[in-house]
Design goal:
By secondary structure, the protein is α/β, with parallel strands linked by helices. The protein is built from 14 helices and twelve strands. The strands form three sheets. The chain has an eight-stranded mixed sheet, sandwiched between helices. A two-stranded antiparallel ribbon has the order 8-9. Strand 4, helix 7 and strand 5 form a beta-alpha-beta unit. The longest helix is centred in the middle third of the chain and has 31 residues. The N and C termini lie far apart (53 Å). Bound molecules: pyridoxal-5'-phosphate.
């Protein structure tokens, strides 16, 4: 068996010769060009019911930086109270169970990540943990950056409420959520007036190369973010906003446009694989999913307590049998030296338990249900959950022998 963990599958530029020639002939290679505009509109129509809009970015990490800076500034500018409180608000509330990028983005914005625990079933940020930190750090939190864990869907109304009541900005790290549908069957994030940031990295389900998208249903927010991503220019070469350069080139936009066309079948295929995993691993702890459909970047699960060895041993066994696997997100943030030194952490008991046992299993456009069947057979051999049948037979024999001796 030789099954890689991920097999990045961006659309093939080599088959887009005519479109590439068009870009070359147009002389427009970046600066929110025509291909980029077609992609932004197409994505909004296909994934967000045409509600709101998107701005592309060169990657989701820069997208998070932009969105956090924009969200925090906009909240401070909203009222006299906002302006007065801005100086005290220096924390970015986020889970420790996320990718390094979430924390890095907040730190680049001059904020200190305040790390909360996750829910034991959905692995989304834990409500009680967030509420406890919101209370403990009242008036000091500038932004909440919940992570939509592995494409799972967050309760966006809850964050709207917190934002409204407590004057806190919200930016959603939805890096692996393009293609996930919420409980109402809408693309995750649809209608949100807080920025929702998606990644199009080659390893994500919406595989491009480097790239990302900021979604927001508020056209003013989107216009400001677009300007901030182009040096803060609100008119040619006049900076009126904090700026950087986060633009996506036309060639990458072309790849994104091609991925959009094939995306429904990519998501369908991965859902079939995830269902196959779930069917073949009864009793194993998989992520509890919220929402109608998920874009499955990979297949996370917990090493069963019945496995006699360590997680490292479990991964070695998988490798030995030719199955690629990974440990997203272990180490979680506060286990990494840079974040230990720069972040503040709340109680992380659930995060520690989940992170220490998590293993991400293979998922890709090229993976087949037969591959999944083979992987699951191997897993069940490594860590049998129910007592093997010979134990039951043995016990029956013992009982029989005891009865006979009466
Ligand atoms: C992939 C990922 C990112 C970063 O996305 P890039 O486009 O690679 O910058 C951020 N957050 C999470 C949770 C991710 O999984």
């Amino acid at each position: 068996m030789k099954i890689p963990f991920l097999q990045p599958n961006p659309s093939r530029l080599s088959q887009l010769g005519a479109e590439l020639a068009q870009i070359e002939d147009s002389g427009v290679f970046s600066n929110y060009g025509p291909v980029n505009t077609r992609f932004e509109r197409g994505l909004t129509d296909a994934l967000f019911d045409g509600v709101g809009g998107c701005v592309t970015v060169c990657n989701a990490t820069i997208g998070l930086m932009l969105a956090i800076r924009h969200g925090v500034d906009a909240m401070a500018d909203r009222s006299a109270r906002g302006r007065a409180e801005a100086g005290r608000r220096r924390y970015a509330l986020m889970p420790s169970f996320t990718f390094a990028a979430t924390a890095h983005a907040a730190i680049w914005c001059g904020l200190t990540p305040l790390l909360c625990d996750i829910d034991p079933d959905t692995w989304l940020p834990c409500r009680e943990a967030e509420d406890a930190l919101l209370e403990q750090y009242a008036g000091q939190i500038a932004v909440i950056v919940p992570y939509a864990t592995f494409g799972n869907c967050l309760d966006m109304e809850r964050y709207d409420r917190i934002s409204e009541e407590q004057g806190i900005a919200v930016v959603v790290d939805a890096a692996s959520s393009l293609g996930s549908l919420d409980v109402l069957g809408r693309g995750f994030g649809t209608g949100s007036r807080h920025s929702v940031v998606f990644s199009m990295h080659a390893t994500k389900t919406f595989a491009v190369a480097e790239g990302g998208v900021i979604y927001n249903a508020d056209p003013d927010a989107l216009a400001a973010i677009r300007a901030m991503g182009n040096f803060g220019f609100t008119e040619p070469r006049v900076a009126r906003l904090p700026g950087l350069n986060s633009k996506l080139g036309e060639v990458t936009a072309l790849q994104a446009l091609a991925k959009l066309a094939e995306f429904p079948s990519v998501v369908e295929h991965r859902i079939a694989l995830a269902e196959q995993y779930a069917r073949a691993l009864p009793g194993w702890t998989l992520q509890k999913m919220v929402g109608r459909r998920h874009a499955h970047q990979f297949m996370p699960m917990l090493v069963p307590a019945s496995y006699p060895g360590t997680r490292a041993g479990f991964l070695d066994e998988l490798r030995h049998h030719g199955v690629g696997a990974a440990t997203y997100f272990s180490p979680h943030l506060v286990e990494q030296p840079y974040f230990r030194d720069t972040c503040v952490a709340g109680d992380l008991r659930v995060t520690e338990r989940i992170a220490s046992r998590i293993v991400a299993l293979p998922m890709s456009d090229a993976l087949t249900c037969e591959h999944v069947r083979l992987i699951c057979t191997l897993l069940r051999e490594l860590a049998p959950l129910a007592p093997p049948t010979w134990v039951a037979a043995d016990m029956l024999a013992t009982v029989a022998a005891l009865s006979a001796g009466d």
